[in-house]
Amino acid sequence: MKRQVPLVLCFLFGIVMILTEFSPHSDSQELYKEVGRWYLVITPFAYVIGVMTLVQVHGTRIRRRAEYWQYSYVVFAGMILMVVVGMPTFLNQTPFFQARGISFGLQSPVFEWLFEYVQVPMEATTFSLLAFFIASAAYRAFRARTFEATLLLISALIVMMGNVPIGDYIWNTVMGETPWTDGTSWARQWILDNPNLAARRGIILGVALGVISQSIRIILGIERSYLGGD
């Protein structure tokens, strides 16, 4: 019985939300807005579950002395520090912090400093590392061993050269005066607006059909992996 209730709720809410998308009636739109407000209520509980999972995973790593388990302490320290600084608590009334002009809260200078000079640089560093993985993958994919790989290599070179000023300089130097000024930029934009966009639309259409198919399976109770267990 416990497993049937989520299936019934999922079916009812799935059907109702589908109907609200195709019904312009005011009651239908109001129901849609009401469910959206329920979503805002449920979201904090999802964050709580996420934090509990994070604590459980890193706590297990520390207990088992897994590889690089020392960094789990860094995770806990950063999480606790941001929570303490971001919450306006009794610390704002402490004479020690008042005398030094230190305040806590989401708008406090301490929180903004930690965000701007700690979190943002770390995010930038993490994303910058992706450039090396992308370069490695591009090297393996762009080797012109087949006709398709050759097209991919040529298109990639045109797009990359069109994104930097030196590409147009090389074009104008080699080709001279042509009807197509900024030749590499024009070629890059043509590739992005025609073959690339067509491929993207095909991929998006396929993803949309997959989402619809999976949604129907969940609404009808065929897919039950979200219930947990086997």
Report the sheet-strand fraction: under 5%
Question: SS-based structural class?
Answer: mainly alpha
Helix segment tally:
9
**Integer average pLDDT:** 82
Q: What is the chains' assembly state?
A: single chain
- What is the alpha-carbon Rg in Å? 27 Å
Helix content: over 70%
Q: Regions with pLDDT < 50 over 5+ consecutive residues?
A: none
Could you state the order of secondary-structure elements as H and E?
A: HHHHHHHHH
Distance between the termini: 16 Å
Based on CA inertia axes, which overall geometry fits? extended
Q: How is the biggest beta sheet arranged?
A: none
E-strand count:
0
Describe the structure.
With 230 residues, the chain is an all-alpha fold. Helix content is 76%, strand content 0%. The longest helix is centred in the first third of the chain and has 39 residues, at 26-64. 4% of the residues are buried. The model has no long low-confidence stretch (mean pLDDT 82).
What is the secondary structure topology, with strand pairs?
Blueprint: H1 4-21, H2 26-64, H3 70-86, H4 95-99, H5 109-141, H6 147-162, H7 165-175, H8 183-193, H9 195-219
